[in-house]
Amino acid sequence: MNADVGLGSWPWRRARITPERIALTRDDRTLTYADLAARTERLAAALIGAGVRAGDRVAYLGPNDIETFESLFATGLLGGVFVPLNTRLSAREIAYMLDDCAARVLVVAPTHHELVAALPSVPGDLLVVALEAPTCPIACTGYEQFLGAGDDSAEVFPPVGLDDPCLILYTSGTTGKPKGAILTHGNVTFNTINQLAHVDVLSTDKSLCLAPMFHVSGLGQITLPTLFKGGSVQPVPRFDAGEVLAAIDRERITGFSAVPTILQMLCEHPDFAGTDLSSLRYIVYGGSPVLERVATAWLDRGVQLLQGYGMTEAAAGVYMAIPDGAAEHPVSVGFPHFYTDVALETGDHTTPITPGTTGELLVRGANLFAGYWNRDEDTAASFTADGWFRTGDVVATGEDGWARVVDRVKDIIISGGENIYPAEVEAVLTRHPGVASAAVVAIPDNQWGEVGLAYVVTTGDTNLDAETITSYLAEHLARYKIPKHFRFVTDLPRNATGKIQRAQLRELAATTPDTNPVTA
Question: Taking every annotated instance into account, which residue ranges of this chain make up the domain AMP-binding enzyme C-terminal (predicted)?
Answer without folding.
Answer: 424-499
